């Protein structure tokens, strides 16, 4: 495996403090957005006056890096979702010139926290369907992960039915992205298709995930239950509960990421189209009527009267995209300005980092096991570690 050049795309950046009483940070040993009770909180060095972006990965061709997450079962292993830019070419049964441009990939960066990261590019055998234009990725604690993508349908685009949603995978290197066996449809282990234009995903527990349904401006709660065999198609045990339909807004080509605090029952959402951050109280809501389901799942219902609270009102952020926890702080990337913002849990701004990247660059953000920030670059397809300078 070749070594990835380090520091190729480094930038000097400055820190802007917005009314902070202290420049000290803290972090929890629990992985951001992974759910569960945070166990310990330890101090992190004071905010630096300047930082640099250390390049972990740069694509050889034009790709967009939309999200990134660490595998909790493999130390220092960072997964980055890659997609191609819109080709504006057709992808129909009779005109397929644009179909290959829909296939997403994973840049798997091993030893991402070290000075010598190592890179492997991985692609599912049927990425055209199962990893179509990926926007988001979230790891469970059980060796599985979910991705979802910005697509109306994961089939030919001249089909009238909206048919797209999250995919469940195994992170086992002997399964994900290997050559499919005879009769296998790719290497996925489950998929449900009720969330077109999916812009974000967060892990809750077991095989349960939340997603940002960009078509309906809703939050969809999925339970895949037992995965099917690798490359199978039995989706019948899935469940879907839909929250706050019409209260969120997608912005095309800008992911809207999610971060879940399971202990508090709070799902934080980058509501990109409304220029704000909101949180859903996940224990709120009462079962309502059934919603449309295209998979033969046993539960597919609306949750009425769920509580959605505005945490960061419009005005501070232009296009919030990435979102992560750092102990009691909320970290949000602004794609429009390429700033990384810090907020208290109540939405009070603590400060921002100007990455020096062009507008439209920042998307996903993660707090690594080393306590450092890691960000993805939509324009260049790169992934960076944020380091003091």
Structural class: mainly beta
Number of strands: 29
What is Rg?
A: 19 Å
CATH class equals: Mainly Beta
Give the % helix: under 10%
Shape: globular
Number of domains in the coordinates?
A: 1
Fill in the keyword field for this structure.
mainly beta; 389 residues; 1 helix; disordered N terminus; globular; 1% helix; Neuraminidase
How are the SSEs ordered, and which strands pair?
Layout lengths: L11 E5 L8 E4 L12 E4 L5 E8 L6 E7 L7 E6 L21 E6 L7 E5 L4 H4 L3 E6 L4 E6 L17 E4 L19 E2 L6 E8 L2 E6 L4 E6 L15 E5 L14 E4 L4 E6 L4 E6 L4 E5 L8 E6 L3 E5 L7 E7 L2 E6 L4 E6 L4 E6 L7 E6 L5 E5 L5 E6 L1
Account of the 3D structure:
This protein is mainly β and 389 residues long. The protein has a single domain (12-388), classed as Neuraminidase (6 Propeller), CATH 2.120.10.30. It is 1% helix and 42% strand. The chain contains 1 helix and 29 strands. It has one helix at residues 127-130; strands at residues 12-16, 25-28, 41-44, 50-57, 64-70, 78-83, 105-110, 118-122, 134-139, 144-149, 167-170, 190-191, 198-205, 208-213, 218-223, 239-243, 258-261, 266-271, 276-281, 286-290, 299-304, 308-312, 320-326, 329-334, 339-344, 349-354, 362-367, 373-377, 383-388. The strands form 6 sheets. Strands 23-24-25-26-1-4-29-28-27 form a 9-stranded antiparallel β-sheet, with no helix packed on it. The protein has a 6-stranded mixed β-sheet with strand order 13-14-15-16-21-20, with no helix packed on it. β24 and β25 form a beta hairpin. The protein is globular.
